[in-house]
Specification:
alpha+beta, 7 strands, rod-shaped, homopentamer
């Protein structure tokens, strides 16, 4: 579906174009065309391929989706794939894709399986004509910056969640829930990491060393995006590492708790075993058991049993088993 | 066994050749010969070595098989080894090998221990003469692309399997089965990884930096294959990492379950120990135990035992041991 | 808030400046201006941006904070972000930020969320005019050196803490406390690591290979800072590694202790089970149980029970279960 | 001990030499001398050093042994150390050493602490004069190839052993044996890895980039050796990784088994505790316990006890505890 | 403290110098001065700095100590820090430091917190004038070689210790001691690793690529030191890896032992529970229990109990629980 298609000159909007008009503008040396598609059909992609002279392999990637994030050069044209990550209504992470084709005087973005509009990018760019004047490379930066900025709230949410798990990790009896949450969180971190790490590697080629011509004027902007990606990536690595440690620590806590339970079990079993042994002894049927005849034999027996149990109880209490 | 042997000119099929005719065509500057062998005999390999001037070491590798995937240059000739991975009838993973020799005007593929035919590759290539015109390098790409594309369903199956294990991982009593499946899955992942990682490293030399002459015109196609391999490799790494975590989590779950069992054991042992201790006390043979003479002594005793047990039961229930 | 703003010439203080005077001095080829801000407002940053011609992206980073440590070149100007790490009154680690802009003849430092003054840096620099003569690059070094020097006591405190945990790690019953401390310590190490590692990587570009012009004369000084960062980083890595091992060892100790407890439990349970079994047997109601009639039947029974228990006790003692 | 000492010209054997004759042949531009020593004495090494002009440090390394595998250039002479790995009569791995000195027209091999003869290498080389014609570099390749080829059966044996351990890993009661075998296997893998990895790194310098003059003509052969080493190294890494996982899995299996034992223990303890509690209650000495007077009181009691135990047994059976 | 101060010419000792004479000799193009200090005072360092024109930062490092091992160039002068590692009288590892300044015609070594004299280095060097002729670079090598050679016995001792722990690792009941030793050994390995790894990285710059002028003539000697460091480093890595595995294996052994204990506990508990249950049943007070009246009721009961226990015992024995 075509979202919009606009020609820009010198940082200012020239005209809303229909698809047919593109060829009239794309040839002019001083202006560029910015087309946005969403869940593009094969026909739309074919038209665009024809208009902008795009490479077969890149079009195929944009059509099929499910690519790794990447930035590739096909002659003078750049082809970039980025992953969008968004929380669905049911609070699950969902990955979408934005493919961007960038030439000397055109930008074509194709958004797939993503609910987040990129309209804000265009609006903001149009409000800053002194930046938009940099041309297609700057638009490319603006789209990428928008995609990357949307990773931050996701990361923040994951950090908050990890912290709330950490608050539970030394609480007795929460081990099962903790481990389920940690495992689920790790799964989500991997999903975001797949969006971030390959993009980071690709973006590094847009500002250091030999830079594609179209990005030359926006080097410092791409370095800024790179810096954001580095930060996100470092945070993800720390999250992963912390989850690993948390899983280990959680296992330790379970073992410690079990050890404490075993000790309690041992203590109570001991106390009752002693009581039962005493009772068993006085329950024997020997004829000559003088204490059985004593007037206060029974209270004495009860007293002895109770006393022994209390002594044991206090001893276990002292060594921390109870 | 010779599968087929065809000469191509300008992207179109020229003629089916017998082995003897090869030398007539291989010398012509504007055409190339594409030979496909399967489980080649020493004689066939010797003939081919003679026809195309192949290096001893490469022929030896093709004959013995069991090589790592690789792409090597012998002068102007490329020698590549790729692993095929396929599910056997009994659902086991089996690795085969495809060796490819590529020269300026010939391609020789030798398929070993693999049931999957490469005939489809030739058919598709012949349907696209504008691409086949690129020559031997493009045919090389087409074969490699076919081999790599067949990794995807294998990977998908392994991802599905891991997900189905993950669904079981927090289910009580499934630990033994889970760990067996995880271990087995890891073994299979390693097998595929051995096919993918070395190939990926080798392919990178076919599109970046100095590229062998025969692949020069198909750089972007090899980059595409490289990209697929990168994607597969990243997926394999994630699978491995996830299996590692799953094994750890599974161990935690076992320990948690054991801890819960120990608590239940402790609770019931406690309840019955108390009952037994009471019964033991009233089973003592003291002469003066007034309650034994009471009319309602027995119901009272039963009542006390029951009451104590119920109180204990509710207490254990409250702290979550039962 | 403006802390101070001074012009230097030839290593000596020329004059305290008001913000308006800056432009008069910053143009002179032989002197440089050193401005220090703290928790700068947007207005102050805007003024500075105007005075020194700073890049939008750098100013934005300095305004928002929460950047990774880094050193970036914007044309001839360097922009550096460093993290300060300090212990709060309640003994918690807190991270602040120092942003530094360095040009051929100016240094602008902006300190955020940090209680530690950098005034000492200026005082020391003014006492060493032969070094201050090196200009803005040397001032940059001096600030960085001060920030990095303040990591050392933090690291030392963490090493001391780890050692005190290690003293507890083989002590019975301390597992729960140890694991909590280890986890907390690891969290703090990660925080410092985030300050150190990216800075280390950035600083390496200030002394090896192509070095920004403004730092050229102070190469050896930046190498010295780099060396300190390497040392801190190596210490942090060792701490992390040791904590990982300590967590593992702690888990082992818990398991060993549980194993010892289980053995004790088994031993005592055995002893009392034997006593109870004996008593149970002589409590049976068979008519013909000759020993029940014996005069010394009861003492004999008690003796046998005691003897068996003592023998068992000694046996368990010998195999180390008690 | 001198094994043999032969001069070759144009790929063919010229003459068996005595040590004194070496200097007559080593100077001739078109021939080379191949000397093989075994457990060389200091005198022999001194003679050889004099004959071929070898460096002090290299001779010292060859004398003392216990070096890491390496390939070093001393001027035009190459000095290589390789480890041989062989199974002793008692099935233990033993490491020996082969030191090789290679010059433009000589090869000197010194074998230490190794039972495997290198005579086969010379025999095979003499059967292929068209290859031997390549000179000293090719002889160097042939020796290295022989050493590396002997790693394969060792690796295969270790793979077979790991597989046989894997067959035991999910078998109850085999945990102790498994872990001992795994630990022992890992130790042996490390020993072979120490032979392989450093050699691999060194060999890479014999075929890629700037190559020592003497190996220039045999580049493709050294690449072949390199390829073998890569394959061995990858296999060793997989073995190591698999052992790590197997140790983890083994621990899981022990814990699972313990958990199952605990459940069985809990179940039987429960059943007997119930029986004992019932018996205890009817063993109390209250005067008014009507059921004690019933004619079928005893069978009823036995029936109730049995019934309860059977019900419990079936319940435990159903939940999988028994 | 000044140990000694000697001028050399052409590999031979010229004269013992007092500190004042240094300047007379250090200027001569064909001779060099070798000064050795121990636990140098600030004054001594200041004098040396003046005599040899040393850099402030290097002097500060030598004064404060506690640096990472490193080799730094200050103009034409090299500054190196190495760690000495020695066993104290109480068998503890202690780290000291040797700082070396090397110029075209001087060597200054400063030894701190180390009991091992470097006098032997000078003595050996003076016995080999043909080597000492290489000048200051060779002396630098000789000192470094001496420091590195002293790592070997430390490493050997640690390997021996690990082996003796490994002998204990599968022995029952030694888990606690093992884990303490492993942890302690790991701590010591880290200490040596801190001495070795950074030095290795620094030394690599003394023989490969661009080499400082003063070391140019001794390249092969520094490569030899590098090789030793590589070997030590590889050994340390293997030790670390093995300790990691040993800790894991030790944990497994504890768990296996616990599992065995649990089984024994379960078996004996089962046997006695059966005996007690039988006794309890015949201890019930029903009036109509015919077997109680039998003449051989009691022996029969004892027999049945014994028989059941023996059967159980044999069954448990057979499944390996006892």
């Amino acid at each position: 579906m075509l979202i919009n298609c606009v020609a820009y000159q010198d940082g200012k909007k020239l005209a809303d174009l229909s698809v047919e008009d593109i060829s009239n503008y794309v040839g002019r040396p001083d202006c560029f065309v910015w087309v946005a598609l969403r869940d593009a059909t094969d026909d739309e992609l074919a038209t665009m391929q024809h208009e902008f002279g795009l490479h077969d392999l890149a079009i195929e990637d944009a059509r099929h989706g499910h690519q790794r994030p990447k930035v590739e050069e096909y002659g003078d044209t750049l082809f970039a794939v980025m992953h969008t990550v968004e929380l669905s209504a049911t609070d699950e992470l969902r990955a979408g894709e934005v493919s961007v084709f960038v030439g000397r005087n055109f930008v074509l973005s194709v958004r797939n399986r993503s609910h987040q509009s990129l309209l804000g990018v265009r609006a903001r760019a149009e409000r800053e004509p002194h930046l938009l004047r940099h041309g297609a490379g700057f638009v490319f930066y603006a789209i990428m910056d928008a995609v990357v900025d949307r990773y931050f709230p996701i990361i923040d949410a994951m950090e908050t969640e990890l912290e709330s798990i950490e608050d539970q990790i030394f609480v007795r009896g929460s081990a099962r829930t903790n481990i389920e949450h940690l495992y689920e969180l790790k799964r989500r971190i991997m999903l975001v990491k797949h969006a971030v790490t390959p993009l980071m590697e690709s973006v590094s080629k847009l500002w250091s060393g030999r830079v594609p011509l179209v990005c030359e004027g926006s080097r410092e902007y791409f370095r800024d995006v790179y810096d954001h990606l580095m930060r996100i990536n470092a945070t993800l690595d720390t999250l992963r590492d912390t989850i690993g440690t948390a899983i280990q620590v959680n296992l330790s806590m379970v073992t410690i708790e079990e050890s404490e339970t075993t000790k309690q079990l041992a203590a109570w079993a001991g106390i009752f075993a002693v009581a039962t042994a005493f009772a068993g002894i006085w329950g024997m049927n020997f004829e000559h058991m003088p204490e059985l005849k004593w007037k206060y034999g029974y209270p004495m027996a009860l007293g002895m049993i109770t006393l022994t149990c209390v002594l044991l109880y206090r001893r276990f209490k002292r060594v921390g088993w109870l």
